[in-house]
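Table S2 (text version). Query chain:
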Amino acid sequence: MYEIFYQEKTKRTHLKNRTLRMKKIFFLLLATLFITSASFAEEVKFTAAGPRVVEVGEQFRLVYTVNEKAKDIQLPSLSGFRVLMGPSTSRNSSSQYINGKWSSSTTYTYTYVLLAEKEGKYTVNPAKIKVKGYEFSSNSVSIEVVKANEKPQNNQGSQPAQASANKITQANLFVKVDVDQKSVYMGEHIVATIKVYTRLNIAGFGDSKFPSFNGFLSQEIPTPGQISLQRENVNGTIYNTGVIRKLILFPQHTGKITIDPFELECIIRQRRSSGNRGFFDDFFDNYQDIRVPRKSKPVTIRVKEFPANKPASFNGAVGSFRMSANVDKDSLKANEAISLKVKISGNGNLKLINPPEFDFPADFEVYDPTTKQDIKSTAKGMTGSTTFEYLIIPRHAGDYEIPPVDFSFFDPKAGIYRTRSTPKFNIKVGKGSGDASSAVISSFSKEDVKFIGKDIRFIKTNDFTPRLKGQVFFGTTNFYLAYLIPFVVFILAFVFNRKRIKENADLARVKNKRANRVAMKRLKTASASLKAQKKEEFYDEILKALWGYTSDKLNLPLADLNKENITDILQGKNVEEELVQDFLNILDTCEFARYAPSSGSSEMDELYKKTMETITKLEKSI
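Corresponding structure-token output:
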């Protein structure tokens, strides 16, 4: 009986373990299938593309592309359009050899020919397709349908109309500098887009002359190297438009600032018109290239002054920002280093923000902050962050406090000033090995008094005249000097230290003294960019060195300095006219060279030497 019970129990245990193993295998397979499906879904790309604008009655192509073999493509409802043909399919394969590895890719294209039937703005919803049993959706496409241009109904008028459409006129070909806004506050960014508009066949471009953007600090937005023409509706007329350059502009002073015209030479390809056409002219097109110069209209920007009641901590920052601050440790020993990081992030003139000025305790030795920028220039403006890192070394033990510091900026969208503050940091400093406040005591060994000879010696009663052996130090001039000199040195050190603390508290004087050193440090960075052939960074560091030196030396905010008032400021400091002109020439060279097609290393090296010589002369003159 016991054996039967034991066998039944063992059988149930094996059955239970088997069930658990089956469940584990099932869940493992299910998880593997889910991960594989998710990975496969990320690899499949199904996209849709079409023109942004078409005319009523115009035929156009709606193209779907998938990078895996697929089937059962399903179009959405095409309201406002009629399908004339499709889908016509094509297959394209490509292979490439990179770093010793072969890779290949295959794309499948489904093309539909549609007819625009009615004016309006339409959104083509995502299409669906099946790849290896899974269903995928494409992106949506927005298409604007505009009214068609009037065309003659008889055959006699059709040829002149065609000739008029291909005629080179200002209406068929022009260039323009588009700005997203024409009225801004001081320091608020403007997005300027230089575009070409054409209804003709452009074969290429010749010489160009870009605006100098005087009165602005400019930052280029990355654009594709090759100009790609896109259809665009301009007041009911469809043009092929191409972006030549896109920039972010920061005005340097208030008032009206005019952006100079942009000049471009366009190469137009046209069919030769000849009354006597040969037999082969009907089979072979005969074209000619015509160089057509075009010039945009100047654009005027009105720059408004900041509203009144500026906060004391406002230093020209404009945009929308966040600020965070932290220390890597709040407890340490004397003579150990501590790092304080302040990060300002958001959208605005991040490159022009100055480091916050903390009121550090007098016992803290603080080095100049290092700046790290992670900034991107996009159509929405300059976004990213600027991080300032302070290296601090407490020299004495004790409990210290780093008080909060305010950072104020102007929000142009709301039209108000906003202030962000860092937290208060409590730093506990213990005694360290090199702490000046800790006493250093040396121990001396003490020997017992030894008596040589007899313990008691009798007093001599006869006359005795003592005789000096060598020279006695006590009571001499050197004796008193040994006490007086250290005392005088202590008094001088105390006075010098008090003077140094007072000078460090005078921020204007500190900036004035370190102006040349900071400028030379930036020129060293420019030299590194010169050796690395980083053109834009080189000119950017040259400008920072000049403007930063002038701001620190003259104790003027960087936002108050510009090319229009720097001449009067330097002449007010009795700077020679020739030296002022050298300063302005360097600024002009940097502004023009940043947008010139190319600059040789010899020219950049000459500019570097000229900048260093100019700063050296200014240091002696001011």
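Notes on Table S2: Residues 34-40, 151-163, 436-449 have pLDDT under 50 and may be disordered. The helical segments are 2-43, 155-165, 477-505, 507-531, 535-554, 566-572, 577-593, 601-621.
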